[in-house]
Give the backbone structure.
Amino acid sequence: MTLRSFMQEAVSPWMKNEGPDADIVISTRIRLARNLENVPFPLVAAEEQLQSVYTGTADHFDQRSHRRFGTFSMLPMQSLAGNEKRILVEKHLISPNLARENQHRGVLLSEDESISIMVNEEDHFRTQCLLSGLQLEEGLKAANTIDDWMESKLDLAFDERRGYLTSCPTNVGTGLRSSVMMHLPGLVITNQLNRIIPAINQLGLVVRGIYGEGSEALGSLYQISNQKTLGNAEEDIIKDLKHVVTQLIQHERDARRQLQEHSLNQLEDRVYRSYGILSYSRRMESKEAMERLSDVRLGIDLGILPEVGAEILNELMVMTQPGFLQQYAGMSLEAEERDQRRAALIRERLLMETTQEESDGGGDE
Amino acid sequence: MLCQECEEREASLHFTKIINGEKTEVHLCGVCAKDKGDYLPGGKSFSIHQLLSGLLDSGQGKQTKQEGTRQARQRRPELKCGTCGMTYRRFAEVGRFGCADCYEQFDEKLDPVFQRIHGSTQHTGKVPKRKGEDMHVYRELESLRQQMQQKIEEEEFEEAASLRDKIRGLEESLKEKGGGAS
């Protein structure tokens, strides 16, 4: 399989770098936690209760078509190989927790993978809508549409006072977690983010690094999400988040402009060094890959590397993960081998940017 | 601010412990925080649920842990969900409810918990369509029943009877619609 056709199968819509403010906002995620009324939550439920939830859901929704989102397919965890689950995690379609489970667990996916519904994770249902760029309202609307569809067929646990009842008290009420993944290299390089984060926390929002260990963020990628789910309407939760994200976008743009005006030479040097290393290295650890890709992406956004497409950061940060590397190689790989394969895959992908091959039409199938 | 442990690196982890109203602030750098895993509740696998169980626990006894639970056990029967068997103590440990009914069974303890987590105790967001409709009916039923009780006490039997008929009508309509999807 060529990299081009492999990618065509692998890329989810959120990785395409298309939505509004996609130069800074990588993706928007809306998640609704829901449970059935008369069945204990998955952590407590007996085997046969989990089974009834699973088969009931499959009966109602597997291979059923929704007028807007197309046909949904249930993927049972039990019948997926370890690496297949891993890829679903790397594409952010299921949680690592669900991937660890087998019996009576699964995920319902819409055709284009923008909607995923995890069945029997911590809650009976975790409906997720994942979109490219900043699309909080659209995401909520889509998630609500699917939620209504499910509610028309299932009796969901709801209480007038407490709202949607969830396994964890941190999710009760709306069951809504809305989050936005942002690329903030300007604020990181100019050392401003550390001052901004506490202010954001005070507004009841959480900022955390993605792909990093602990509080450290890799590749200047941050996730901002609401913490409180009870007491505010869904629309208000999203409005508050959007307000903060919009301000962050403004600050990031300012910081980038500052860098261009006052330290263009250092900035170019940083971008070209990283580009050079990604283009020629023979081993690449995932941590370094993330940092270099972030630099290159900043260079693309600022017009320093006009010949490279902006979507490479989104694509490669997913496709250089272990699951994808193994899938592309067609075998399982040790860490050592993965570093070599990762370097090769990045080189190949960058080459695709500069050489316009005509191999577009000729896929494998 | 420098890390209070090594006094070399910049502190990146700040947290405040409040135990029985006594406040302690801790400032550590990433390296020391990792080494001193036991500084954090739960150590290296420090999770939201461990944090949470601290919150939930404080609703119960406040003495040393063993003493407190022993006394609580003796004093009164423990809160327990009749549907799934989850006890409040277990809930406080794991930080998760067992089923939808736990919310009602533990209700007396939940307002302060939700207040602390969410700053609110009352849902104001989306209401499911199908169930929302029924909810109106339930609310009306509730009020009609109260009115009927009142009329009976006032010995206004005719009016009580007409209220009773209304109630029956509503109950019938609920039954027809319900039966429920599986």
Summary: The longest strand of chain A covers residues 25-34. Chain A has two domains: 8-257, 263-356. Residues 357-365 of chain A have pLDDT under 50 and may be disordered. DSSP finds 13 helices and eleven strands in chain A.
